[in-house]
Each structure stands twice: as structure tokens, then as C-alpha cells.
Amino acid sequence: MAQINGNKPLSAVQKLRIMLSDPAKFVVCPGVYDGYTARIALAEGAECLYMTGAGTTMSRLGMPDMGLAQMSDMLTNASMLASISPHTPLIADADTGYGSALMVSRTVSSYIRAGVAGLHLEDQVVTKRCGHLRGKQLVDTEEFVSRIRAAVMAREQSGGDIVIIARTDALAGEGYAEALKRLRVAIAAGAEVAFLEGVTTRQEAESLTRDLAPTPCLFNNVPGGVSPDFSVKEAREIGYKIAIFPLLALEVVYPAVRNACRELLDEGSVKSVEKDGKRWGPRELFNVCGLDELMEFDRKAGGKGYVEDA
């Protein structure tokens, strides 16, 4: 584990800041929406996670990403995800901050206490919608900047730390020049990463990273959305510093669960989830979530509940 002064482990936000300052590092963030998908990503070696707002809304509320999730929904999920691996950076969607500057302050302070390493705030109205849907409405630039300023002030007053990412959805309705202007004023107000939602071409993306240099820029990979499906290699070549993949887990879970349900209902058994002719048993599934480590902890503490499982 990385350490400060040879003995104190780095916090998640310190790790994220080191990643952002390292010219050779590109930050790849698989999108997760619950503890299980987070555990799977971590088991496969993910160095940074992204809590998707769409996935949080869909998994916790069973509803689409239409601004229905409130701060409490998002905070509860972010707190749980951050606690799974406290030294792994988690970047979390914070939507609009959920209200006035005072509400933004509460949101940011709460995310800091939860151990979230970075969050993004956007310039849609509070009743927002997914950035890859039509009909988005924006607040004026002054209100957007007040959200960023409130986030910076809340961070200072909290005594903690978090990376503040400014997101604008102005490109679709207002054009590139307006979107660029909004990001520049957000950066001037203290935002540390720029997030232009809904880029439509590689040329547009290259212009963004060039126009905002040296501020790191974030790419939102949403297959089937309005943006190109840039690979990590392509995003890095374009000049991005971070790429988030918010629908990664949602996209693969949908057909897998759908097919399994269809098999069960039509044929009375499920074959599509077999691994080398075998089903995934509870022990292997639970181990993704740390079963062996928890049993070992219990044994070392003197517990007797898992002695026979050694």
C-alpha cells in the first residue's frame, strides 16, 4: 500500500491527486452502482471507481435517470462504496448539488465525511436528466459558478479534502463556445477537473483538452449516447486525463439477467451462467465480497463460528 513518510497510508483523495498530477498516469474508472459490482471491479484490479448516478437511481429506486434520486439516496450509496476499499479513490456523481449554495455545501461536506475522493457538479436545473437525453435545461452561468464556489468553501470549512469536478451540459443547446466559457469560469472559481458532457466528435474533444490545458479533462464514455465510444487509448491520445464508464456494469448485467430469467421461465432451468459446465456456487460468489478475509479475521479475533471452514 502506498504510504506517506514511510508509515502512514495514503488516503483515497491523496491517491487521486497523485494520479492527476502524474503526467504518465491515465485514470480509468469502471462505473459501479452497488457493493457487488464495486467488489468485482476491485477484484479485477481497478485503481479508481466511479459511482454512476444513473446506476444509483436504477438500482436503489428502480427508476430512470431523470433527477429522481435525492442527496440522501446518492450519499448512502457513495458512503457504502467508499467504505469497501477506503484507500481506493471513488469519484461520485453529485448531480446539481441538490439545491441552493447551502445545499451544495451540505452535499460536498457529506461526501467528504463519507470518504469520497472526487465529485462532479453540473449546470442543469435541479430537476435534471441524463446528459445523453434531449431536452436538458440549464441554470445561468452565475448560478453554476455559485455551486462550484460553494463546493470550494465547504471543502475549506470541512477540514477535509475532495477533488471538485465541474461538468457542463451546455454543449447540446448552447454550443461549444458557451460550454467552454462555463468551464473556464468554473475553473477560475476553484474546480480542478473539467467535464464537458456530450462531446460529439474527436475534433471537439481535442479542442476541449487543448483549450483548457493544463486543467485535466474528464471523458464520459456512454455507448449508444451522443458521444463517440472512445477507448482508453483514444481518450488518452486526445488529451483527456480521466475516463469514466458509468454504464459498464449496467450494460453487461442487463442482457445476462434478462437471458437467465428467460431461460428459467421458458425452459425451467438456467444454462447460460454455467462456468466450464458448472454453476457459480455461493462460496465463490461470496468470496468476491471478502468471505475468506472475514472468516480469517473472526478466527484471529478468537471467534469460533468459522473454525470448521478453515
Topology:
Blueprint (H helix, E strand, L loop, with lengths): L2 E2 L3 E2 L2 H10 L5 E6 L2 H9 L5 E3 L1 H9 L9 H14 L5 E4 L7 H14 L3 E5 L18 H18 L4 E6 L1 H5 L1 H13 L4 E4 L5 H11 L4 E4 L11 H7 L3 E4 L2 H20 L14 H7 L2 H10 L10
Pfam families: PEP_mutase
GO molecular function: methylisocitrate lyase activity
Protein name: Carboxyvinyl-carboxyphosphonate phosphorylmutase
Descriptive labels:
TIM Barrel; two-stranded antiparallel sheet; 13 helices; 310 residues; alpha/beta; Pyrv/PenolPyrv_kinase-like_dom; 2 domains; Carboxyvinyl-carboxyphosphonate phosphorylmutase
Name the helix and strand elements from N-terminus to C-terminus, one letter apiece: EEHEHEHHEHEHEHHEHEHEHHH
Separation, N- and C-terminal Cα atoms: 27 Å
What ranges have pLDDT less than 50 throughout 5 or more consecutive residues? none
Task: Please tally the β strands and state the result.
Answer: 10
Overall geometry: globular
- Reported by name, the CATH topology of the largest domain is TIM Barrel
- Approximately how much beta-strand content do the residues carry? 5-15%
Mean pLDDT, as a whole number?
A: 92
Radius of gyration: 21 Å
Report on the biggest sheet. Answer: 8 strands, parallel, barrel
What is the count of helical runs? 13
Using the 3D structure, state the CATH architecture of the largest domain. Answer: Alpha-Beta Barrel
- The strand order across the widest sheet is 3-4-5-6-7-8-9-10
Protein name: Carboxyvinyl-carboxyphosphonate phosphorylmutase
GO molecular function: methylisocitrate lyase activity
Pfam family, one: PEP_mutase
Organism: Paraphaeosphaeria sporulosa
